[in-house]
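Could you help me review a protein record that somebody else here produced? What it holds is a sequence and that sequence's fold in token form. I need someone to confirm that the token line plausibly describes how this chain folds. Take the sequence as given and treat only the tokens as open to question. This is what I was given:
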Amino acid sequence: MINQDICSYIQEKINDHYNQKGNEYFADLLVKKGYGQNYGGYFEDFKDLLNTKLAEPNQKLHFTNYYMNSKRKDKKPSYSSLHCPQLMLWIAEIAGLNDRHLNSAYDFIVTFEEENKLKQNQKGGDYLEDYEGVEEEFKNILKIYNINTIIKNSNSWIDVLSEVNKL
């Protein structure tokens, strides 16, 4: 699949704020509680929608805006190079990663920010890179490299859900 295929599926089938089980996305919980990226990037792109109490702008908009642009829409996914913890967490969740891994990744960000007193600071999308090994550890907990490979090599989102569910 290419990004355009994935974006089309997301636009048609994925809810803005609730997963397939009807639960709020982990990424939305991060935003609402002040964790993760909180300025620049998609917050700047959609400042007219900015309402962190409602987790807006949402990750669906963040994803489709980024991957449907003319530079990326016809390319294979490259999500393992992302830096924004919310977007990576959201991708893993919509791809069907189990709650055990999602909870671990969510808890990792919360604990990391609490221990480093980052919650109230301005944090751009790449803030985890400022701390040696932290972004890499988060990505490993989240299985984002495996998920990226699965999405890149799948022919449909049904295949993605089936394979990611096995991680």
